[in-house]
Design brief:
heterodimer, A: 166 residues, alpha+beta, Alpha-Beta Plaits, 4-stranded antiparallel β-sheet, 5 helices, B: 488 residues, mainly alpha, Formate dehydrogenase/DMSO reductase fold, two-stranded antiparallel sheet, 65% helix, globular
């Protein structure tokens, strides 16, 4: 992976640089920020997160399993107590609900990991430790022939540091 | 926005100048930049002499509890003060107490997150950690209460050679599902929120071993826009799952009682009554923890008086709900026309257990009324003292629920007393040692205030002046604008 990293100390300059880069049709852009900022979200305009699909599927699997285990166990040992049905859906709703929350929550986390590509075990090209503190990073993947243009653009927009990485 | 077209009248201006941190628009004027946030919150991780003293004290209490439990396992449950018909005692009381403590953590971290209540930002990490350790503590007590505690796993449904499965119609099995789900989800919620902060610690750490450990725990988090996007969505869904979960858990705990027939237990008010009481007791414990912490760690400009003021209002509200539930209980006992129920309530309030009821009503209904005074809501010494009374009052609430019902059932030959033994007291003290040990270890390994979330409300560096947020009239507020009353 080759590209150019622009290091910004000010948020608004980073936002302007991203706008300009998007207009220039270079490669994919990755933005590093110490905290989520709505200004960055607006300018990046990424599609909605797919985590919700994992949540839905996990929740449905969980509630199904919760009811199934309670009903199956009751039928496996069909002991009638007080003339009540062997498989009673009312108390089993508690089991269904709890297992839905458990599996749904764990699936949500799995969805976050899969979509964010976590855990990362190797060095990430373009990342700088200063991005977790207070600075903003704009990493743009580009061909070597476009790199000089990207560098000029980032410097022109006020990047405090610009470097090529691979 | 339609509101922005209206002229701002005098009442709006009055509102503007009063602290309003129930909204998302909270600012920390004494926190100037991101570097200050990193520096000051990371500084809380350095161990001090007071921390070591606290940790050794906690471990000491824990060892007392462990010794008492070993003695109980050797001698049998008879040493624990059980005396027919009172076969539920301090362990079940303390189980409900600790589960309840855990509830405020989820309320603050999840429910207030969904409601966008700004005052949660600086207190939620403490409350979440408190939840996890409180539920860990609570989970021990049903096991302590077992005659053969090493068989506790029989409650979990798994294929086994005995061909025996748990009874899913039993409230005790519901408890297992509810508590284990709650422990798993609240631990996950705490850890997910910690990941960006652990990445900050990793990038600041000089010690290579600690840096490596933080690197593994942060899972290689890089603060990229992709990570933040999915993180925000996952956090929202976890909050959305945790909200009904917290309501269900204490409802299920209340079913342990409400499914039984003893007078005072067999009532439909128990689920909401237990949930309100749990949140009330948890907020009390949040005050007990956060007020000394903000002073010791010099974090008064993060956890400001406005935050405590707002949390105190929540405490007052839940106290009123709990007080209302007590009065409904009395009313229903009278209105039911059941002589057994009426006699039980009379015995509970004016008879054998009057002293426990008096402690409960004084601590949970009377003293919290002081929070109607803004002056007292903003007095940290009073809030701390009150929180201790709330903790005591809520433990006695569970005492009054468990003991008077079992000691005063339907027939006079069933009437009895109850006296805890030294084993009960030692295990109760041990539970506080266990909880405190985990909490003290936590606050020296991880930030007690969420670094990334605080940065969201701190002004980033900007080349040109920008506006941020909106006021009640729909006008944008400047970043530099201070919310009145932030300083002590």
């Amino acid at each position: 992976m080759r590209g150019v990293l622009g290091h910004f100390r000010e948020l608004d300059l980073a936002v302007e640089a991203i706008e300009e880069l998007k207009r220039g049709s270079f490669g994919p852009i990755t933005v590093y920020s110490p905290t989520p900022r709505h200004e960055l979200e607006h300018v990046i305009a990424a599609p909605p997160s797919a985590v919700r699909k994992f949540t839905l599927v996990g929740g449905l699997l969980g509630v199904t399993f919760g009811y199934w285990i309670a009903i199956w166990v009751s039928d496996y040992w069909p002991l009638v107590v007080g003339g009540k049905p062997v498989a009673s859906w009312v108390p089993y709703t508690i089991i269904g609900f709890e297992v839905m929350v458990l599996v749904g929550a764990l699936s949500t986390v799995a969805g976050m990991f899969v979509n964010s590509r976590l855990p990362k075990v190797t060095h990430t090209v373009g990342y700088d430790a200063r991005f977790s503190h207070g600075d903003f990073g704009v990493w743009v993947e580009c061909d070597p022939e476009d790199a000089a243009k990207c560098e000029d653009l980032l410097r022109g927009k006020g990047a405090s540091e610009v470097r090529r990485e691979r | 926005m339609a509101a922005s077209a209206k002229p701002v009248d005098a009442r709006d201006i009055e509102v503007l100048h009063r602290p309003n941190i129930a909204s998302a628009d909270v600012q920390l004027p004494a926190v100037r930049d991101y570097e200050q946030v990193d520096r000051e919150i990371s500084a809380t991780l350095s161990p001090t002499a007071a921390w070591y003293i606290g940790l050794f004290t906690a471990v000491g209490f824990l060892l007392i509890g462990i010794a008492a439990w070993m003695y109980q396992i050797y001698s049998g449950l008879g040493v624990a003060g059980y005396n027919p018909p009172v076969m539920w005692g301090v362990y079940i009381i303390t189980f409900v107490f600790w589960v309840g403590i855990g509830h405020a953590g989820t309320l603050i971290s999840a429910i207030l997150y969904l409601f966008r209540a700004g005052f949660r930002t600086t207190i939620y990490r403490c409350a979440e950690a408190m939840t996890v350790f409180a539920v860990m503590t609570a989970g021990l007590f049903p096991i302590l209460h077992l005659g053969r505690p090493w068989k506790f796993f029989w409650l979990i449904p798994y294929p086994n050679w005995r061909y025996i499965w748990p009874n899913f119609k039993s409230p005790l099995v519901w408890d297992v599902f509810a508590i284990l789900t709650y422990l798993t989800v609240s631990t996950t919620f705490l850890y997910i929120g910690l990941i960006p902060d652990i990445a900050v610690l990793r990038d600041r750490e000089r010690n290579p071993i600690r840096r490596r450990i933080y690197g593994v725990l942060s899972l290689g988090w890089r603060n990229s826009d992709r990570e933040w996007r999915h993180f925000a969505r996952a956090y929202l869904f976890l909050a959305a799952f945790s909200t009904p979960l917290v309501l269900s858990v204490h409802s299920v705990v209340s079913f342990d009682f409400a499914m039984g027939l003893p007078p005072g237990w067999h009532t439909t008010i128990f689920p909401p009554y237990f949930v309100a009481g749990a949140i009330f007791s948890g907020i009390g414990m949040v005050f007990t923890i956060i007020i000394p912490l903000r002073k010791w760690f010099r974090l008064q400009h993060y956890v400001t008086l406005n935050h405590l003021d707002a949390a105190a209002k929540l405490c007052l509200f839940t106290s009123l709900v709990v007080g209302c539930a007590y009065m409904v209980e009395w009313f229903i006992a009278w209105y039911s026309g059941l002589q057994v129920e009426q006699d039980y309530f009379w015995n509970r309030i004016f008879g054998q257990w009057w002293w426990a009821s008096a402690i409960l009503y004084t601590c949970n209904m009377v003293l919290p009324l002081s929070l109607f005074s803004q002056k007292l809501r903003r007095n940290t010494t009073w809030l701390f003292i009150l929180s201790i009374f709330i903790n005591i009052g809520m433990w006695f609430e569970r005492f009054v629920i468990v003991i008077p019902s079992l000691s005063h059932e339907f027939e006079p030959w069933q009437w009895s007393g109850y006296r805890p033994t030294w084993v009960d007291y030692a295990i109760l003290a041990g539970s506080f040692g266990w909880f405190s040990m985990w909490f003290l270890l936590f606050i020296k390994q991880f930030p007690v205030i969420a670094i990334a979330e605080v940065k969201e409300i701190v002004k980033p560096r900007l080349k040109k002046p920008h506006d941020h947020g909106i006021d009640v009239a729909g006008q944008h507020l400047a970043f530099e604008r201070e919310t009145p009353g932030e300083h002590e």
